[in-house]
TrEMBL record:
<dbReference type="Pfam" id="PF06844">
    <property type="entry name" value="DUF1244"/>
</dbReference>
<feature type="region of interest" description="Disordered">
    <location>
        <begin position="80"/>
        <end position="101"/>
    </location>
</feature>
<protein>
    <recommendedName>
        <fullName>SMc04008-like domain-containing protein</fullName>
    </recommendedName>
</protein>
<feature type="domain" description="SMc04008-like">
    <location>
        <begin position="30"/>
        <end position="96"/>
    </location>
</feature>
<dbReference type="InterPro" id="IPR036810">
    <property type="entry name" value="SMc04008-like_sf"/>
</dbReference>
<dbReference type="InterPro" id="IPR023163">
    <property type="entry name" value="SMc04008-like_domain"/>
</dbReference>
C-alpha cells in the first residue's frame, strides 16, 4: 500500500466512520444488544467515543448531541420507534459477554 500522509489517513478514517454510522442508521432492525453480544460495542458506545474525542479536542458536545449524531435523530425518538425489548436469550448472552470492569 502506498504510504499515506496523516491527512489522507484521517480523511479515510473519517469516511469509513461516516459509512459505518450511515449503515447503522439504515439497519434499524439490528438492536444495540445484538451489536454488544456480537461485537462488544453498540451505537451508544460510538456516541460515547465521539463525545470523548470532541472533549479531547476541547469541543463541548453533550451526551444527547453525540447520540443524535450517531442515531440521526434524538435518542428517545429512536428508542420509541425502533428499540425492542430484549429477549431472555439476548439478555443472557449480554450477561455472559459484557465487558468486565
Amino acid at each position: 500500500m502506498t504510504a499515506l500522509t496523516r491527512e489522507q489517513e484521517t480523511e479515510l478514517e473519517a469516511a469509513a466512520f461516516r459509512r459505518l454510522v450511515a449503515h447503522l442508521r439504515e439497519r434499524r432492525d439490528v438492536q444495540n444488544i445484538d451489536l454488544m453480544n456480537l461485537a462488544g460495542f453498540c451505537r451508544n458506545c460510538l456516541s460515547n467515543w465521539y463525545r470523548e474525542a470532541a472533549e479531547e479536542a476541547g469541543l463541548p458536545v453533550s451526551k444527547d448531541e453525540s447520540r443524535e449524531m450517531i442515531y440521526g435523530m434524538p435518542y428517545e425518538e429512536w428508542k420509541n420507534q425502533h428499540q425492542k425489548e430484549a429477549s431472555p436469550v439476548q439478555k443472557a448472552a449480554f450477561e455472559q459477554n459484557k465487558p468486565k470492569d
